[in-house]
């Protein structure tokens, strides 16, 4: 992720350049009409021809507060039916907890423009087709769909938003999942407000201009000068989502505003962007955060039974962790604050993330352990601003316990998580530790375990071409967690084994068992008796089969021509396969995959294969090791080639020929 801090201040000498203006509604250019799908890229089914936004501030004398006024206008071309989804418009409007301060949408104007028999035909949106949907008590969607769509349609709409929520001013999203020819944004900000302005993403602005707008904001009968800034970008590529990434908002080009200071008319300053010491005090004294951590007395009656005969601190931590995991069910709501409180969570056995993990911290502290809260942002929520403390960036809390000079991060919301392993959605850059009595500090959570799977098949090939054998699969870390979550979806282990048998191509499961379903700290072991038909006519002089039937990759997860964001796998990975097959006679190896030893640059990973035939026993081994959790964008092509070569290797069969008997 690339961040650039832009300058936005009133008393800076701006040069006077070309100032932006909105484009005329419904007036198409020849370039708009001529633009075709492949003029931009080979995969986008629509494109933004032009986009304009203008945000300014007005003081509402009736309500007694400043409001943000945003005018938005966009023109989009739909190349084919797959692009029609961009004609389904959803506009959000928010309100605060009181319901008194709410966004207001107005002046919605929309038209579909088609070329019919060489003529331009405009079909305006029927206002009766605009409807509202209450998503939550704080969020309402205004929705509409453009009429009369056809391949090549141009859709255009505009609206005005008046909002009392001025903290983030207006985030301007320069990049989207379709390409944009042009995107321009005007920001007119009174001198009494100071914002931190951040350009996020890999692409530079093509326009950044500004001037002082004299007296453009009026409050209490006084005219206040404003900074009038223009930000623009042209020929913006589509952002393509690919596997192994965090929230796309982390990497799309966009301009973010964050209110840092306000100045009263008398010249006094109100500092909005706080220091961490202010945030620490706010969290520690908050009854739904620090107040809940301090409720360790609620565990006094539980501890004698829970910790009976537990010899050491690590055992105590594990016992408390398991108790909270098993007895408090997550209600699927996120949050860094407690929703109902530790007492309620213990008595009712349910709660949000804050309820569960703050309860865990209170319990650990009751046992005399060094436990603290850690606030973070989940992968879908985006990374946090580590320059200025912005509490709204954080949407999750976990526990940290320090034992014998080692720190363990714990999340008790998932009963399948082993001790010390955070779920992948919590591995997302920096997190902030909030001690009750000391200053807070940054940590960067990483996976404490690599994701490891080992497949071992030992079998005998019968004269009829059937391979009978035993398949053992050992899963550790996230691989084990993934399988345990799969298991949880079935009523019995037998149902799960039947499901594995149905989805497995190439062999049948005769019977099976699974070991390690109760102890999450142990590997999950699957043991199956399997049968597979390798060949029908073993009486022939030669036969062949493909040895990559276990853990076959099949498809390259990396297919972009360019990736501007990291490959984030969350954890290092290691997969091993070992086949040992007794043959019905003596054979020679005619051909097969070459013994392979391929390495990624900078010790980023390895891929090994090896085949041996000794007497009547064939062995095949394979190792795929990815030693890094995150690979930078400059390693993308190496990874892409690495996986491409693996897939080519997987296509090669083993050919065996029976030797002459004497």
Automatic annotation (TrEMBL):
<feature type="domain" description="Transglutaminase-like">
    <location>
        <begin position="305"/>
        <end position="390"/>
    </location>
</feature>
<dbReference type="InterPro" id="IPR038765">
    <property type="entry name" value="Papain-like_cys_pep_sf"/>
</dbReference>
<dbReference type="InterPro" id="IPR002931">
    <property type="entry name" value="Transglutaminase-like"/>
</dbReference>
<dbReference type="Pfam" id="PF01841">
    <property type="entry name" value="Transglut_core"/>
</dbReference>
<protein>
    <submittedName>
        <fullName>Transglutaminase domain-containing protein</fullName>
    </submittedName>
</protein>
